[in-house]
Amino acid sequence: MAIRLGDTAPNFTATTTQGELNFHEWLGDSWGILFSHPKDYTPVCTTELGEVARLKPEFDRRNVKVAGLSVDPIEDHHGWAGDIEETQGTALNFPLIADPKREVANLYDMIHEKANNTLTVRSVFVIAPDKTVKLTLTYPASTGRNFQEILRTIDSLQLTANHQVATPVNWKHGDRVIIVPSLSDADAKQKFGEFETVKPYLRYVNDPS
Ligand code: BEZ
């Protein structure tokens, strides 16, 4: 069944390039990203995994653990890792789940039969420390993801979690944010001090983080 926002991210155990992993235990109190790619030894996936490895310091800074997944066997993951390091300039530094029986792929509805009935699509699940799913994305095999956008969504989700604010169109870290409608003007004044009211439902405040 499809996983929807607010659902608890299903737990699983799996073999990864960093050993056996119990997903919930491995996440601990961190935020998490679980993302699938269609196939090892393919061009778009090679560039994506290199980029995720390159961005590890950015994920660490945000207290986010990242795990990748495909239905290829662990031997292929280990072999392909050498190609990723050679061609992308960064070694794999996060666990890559081997899911040849498609157990995790099915649990997370990562195989969309009308796109491809055996391979995973490019799914992304962002998971909060309480294990609820906060964001999902689905890209086709032919479109590499923009992991800067995924970092941006994490910045937004973490602001919302910590400060009762939302982020407007094209927002990026440091830009003004929006006070959520459920917060009264009086409470907003107490919480943020000054803010700008464009409409009663559209109120901007400087990034409180
Ligand atoms: C790729 O990563 O390049 C790719 C993987 C599966 C199908 C098409 C492209």
TrEMBL record:
GO CC, alphabetical: cytosol
Q: Source organism's superkingdom?
A: Bacteria
Instruction: Spell out the CDD domains in the cross-references.
Output: PRX_1cys (cd03016)
Give GO MF terms, alphabetically. Answer: peroxiredoxin activity
Q: Where is the Thioredoxin domain?
A: 3-159
Q: What InterPro entries does this protein's entry cite?
A: AhpC/TSA, Peroxiredoxin_AhpC-typ, Peroxiredoxin_C, PRX_1cys, Thioredoxin-like_sf, Thioredoxin_domain
Where does the sequence pass through the membrane?
A: none
Task: Tell me if Hydrolase is a UniProt keyword of this record.
Answer: no
Residues annotated as catalytic: 45
Keyword terms, alphabetized: Antioxidant, Oxidoreductase, Peroxidase, Redox-active center
A single BP term in Gene Ontology: cell redox homeostasis
PANTHER family associated with the record: MCG48959-RELATED, PEROXIREDOXIN-6
Instruction: Give the protein family.
Output: Belongs to the peroxiredoxin family. AhpC/Prx1 subfamily.
The protein's name in its UniProt record: Alkyl hydroperoxide reductase subunit C-like protein
